[in-house]
Design goal:
Largest sheet: 5 strands, mixed
Strand order of the largest sheet: 2-1-5-4-3
Strand content: 15-25%
Shape: rod-shaped
Helix content: 55-70%
Number of domains: 3
Number of strands: 12
Radius of gyration: 51 Å
Bound molecules: adenosine-5'-triphosphate, magnesium ion
Number of helices: 12
Length: about 475
């Protein structure tokens, strides 16, 4: 029952029953007033006929028994029929009670009729009323009867009851018809769309499950067409994603093999430096550099191709030690001594929760970028790594006084392969760093960059996301 009431067709059914009943009530009031007026008119007419019957027998006087019979047949106690000013005809029997009200039908408007009918319905018991009207067929100036209200009320109630039953039948029939029509026109097409959505959701890459717009109703057709467009786009995007994934796997394989080949080539090129030939000796280091760059590219691609970094195994790590290692490594890697000064401001024994190996790569990538930018600008500069320890998080900042991010890098920040603006870079360092930090539940952001320098900020929340969720 509940589900019927909450369904579209169920609601329509109930609303129709309600509305038809309401319409019937609106009709009921005036029609019962009309019924009463007609009833009274009928009584007047019958009384007039009775009076005329007496008139027809004018030569011999009518016995009181016949008079009473005539009045009973007309359903009234008294009749007064004024033929014209002079002549008046009166039939009468005993009236059981005082006349309680007089109704003149000659000048009764609809409002008065409705009001009188309502009064009649609510009144209790039997009473006597006087009714005045115009005789039919110009049979006189005026006719007046006194009558009992009980039969009138009974007839009115009977009539009302019949109207009520009729309305119930009409509304039931209408509602049933509407129920089936709504089902056929609205519910079925909507169900079809919903079923299609469900089927499509279970296998969105299957193009056969895309909906074929079929409804002839404009609104539903629009919905079907919109759904179709959506499904087409989604299916296409999914296919593209599959292609890209396949391509990615192929690139990873190629990079892997290429790296091995290039590594052997580097070893060979190293030996060429020992050659006696001055040209070979001169060119060998350049060859080695190019090969090394190619190896790095392959390694970067491979690292990135491992779809996602392994989830970090978080453990307390001494950040000061970690930063010192990075500083040392970068100082060693510097192409020119003294151009970039790398310094740690991390207080000793600052312990953070992180995956030591992954986090070192993050710092190394950021610090190396800063050093490389300073070296490229050929202007002395500083790189400073500092940390802020608040109850919620560790904020690690790498600030440099280099030339700032070039526009290309700024626009494609953290996008793999796209943000690289250095000649021998791959554009992967920051993307990988960002991914790792995200894996730690933290954020890596570019805080500011200008010609005066750049600073990147890593924010590592102290409470892991899982813990926060559990607490909530
Ligand atoms: N501190 C910085 N100052 C100036 N430019 C920077 C700085 N850090 C990054 N960049 C710019 O952002 C680009 C993208 O850096 P990212 O580390 O992602 O790639 P890459 O250094 O070019 O290559 P990879 O790190 O993969 O070898 C760099 O090419 C560089 O131009
Ligand atoms: Mg880099």
């Amino acid at each position: 029952m509940r589900s019927f009431l909450n369904s579209l067709s169920g609601r329509f059914f109930l609303l129709t029953v309600g509305f038809v009943m309401l319409a019937e009530v609106l009709i009921f009031v005036p029609s019962i007033a009309r019924f009463r007026a007609e009833y009274l008119m009928d009584r007047l007419e019958r009384a007039q006929i009775a009076a005329l019957a007496v008139l027809a027998a004018m030569d011999e006087p009518v016995s009181p028994e016949v008079e009473a019979e005539l009045l009973a047949a007309a359903g009234v106690y008294n009749v007064v029929l004024q033929r014209d000013k002079a002549r008046e005809l009166v039939l009468s029997t005993t009236v059981p009670a005082e006349v309680s009200a007089t109704y003149d039908l000659r000048d009764a408007g609809p409002v008065a009729l409705i009001r009188d009918a309502a009064r009649e319905l609510v009144a209790s018991g039997d009473s006597v009323i006087r009714v005045i009207g115009e005789p039919i067929k110009s049979g006189g100036r005026l006719i007046e009867v006194t009558m009992s209200t009980a039969p009138l009320r009974a007839a009115m109630i009977d009539y009302g009851w019949r109207i009520l039953q009729l309305s119930a039948v009409i509304s039931a029939i209408t509602a049933t018809l509407l129920f089936f029509v709504v089902r056929a026109i609205l519910v079925m097409p909507i169900r079809r769309v919903v079923r299609n959505m469900q089927a499509y959701t279970s296998a969105p890459e299957d193009a056969r499950r895309i909906i074929e717009p079929r409804s002839r109703l404009r609104e539903i057709r629009d919905a079907e067409e919109a759904l179709r467009t959506l499904q087409l786009q989604l299916t296409r995007a999914l296919r593209q994603k599959e292609h890209l994934a396949a391509l990615g796997r192929a690139v990873a394989k190629i990079s892997h093999d290429l790296r091995n080949i290039l590594t052997s080539a580097t070893l060979l090129a190293d030996r060429m430096e020992l050659s006696e030939d001055p040209t070979v000796k001169r060119l060998a280091p350049r060859l080695v550099r190019s090969l090394t760059r190619a190896v790095h590219l392959c390694e970067g691609t491979l690292a990135f191709g491992r779809a996602e970094e392994a989830p970090p195994s978080l453990a307390p790590v001494d950040l000061a030690d970690l930063v010192d290692e990075v500083v040392e490594a970068e100082e060693l890697a510097a192409s020119e001594r003294g151009l970039a000064t790398i310094r740690s401001e991390v207080p000793p024994h600052t312990v953070v929760r992180a995956d030591a190996e992954q986090f070192q790569r993050v710092l190394q990538n950021i610090v190396r970028n800063a050093r490389q930018a300073i070296e490229q600008a050929k202007r002395p500069g500083d790189v400073v790594i500092s940390v802020e320890d608040t109850p919620e998080a560790w904020t690690i900042r790498v600030r440099d006084t280099g030339p700032g991010l070039p526009p290309k890098a700024r626009e494609n920040l953290f996008r793999p392969f796209q943000g690289g603006a250095r000649r021998d870079g791959t554009g992967l360092g920051l993307a990988i760093a960002e991914e790792i930090v995200r894996g730690h539940g933290g954020t890596l952001a570019l805080e500011e960059t200008s010609e005066e320098g750049t600073s990147f900020v890593i924010r590592l929340p102290k409470r892991s996301i899982a813990l926060t969720e559990a607490a909530e």
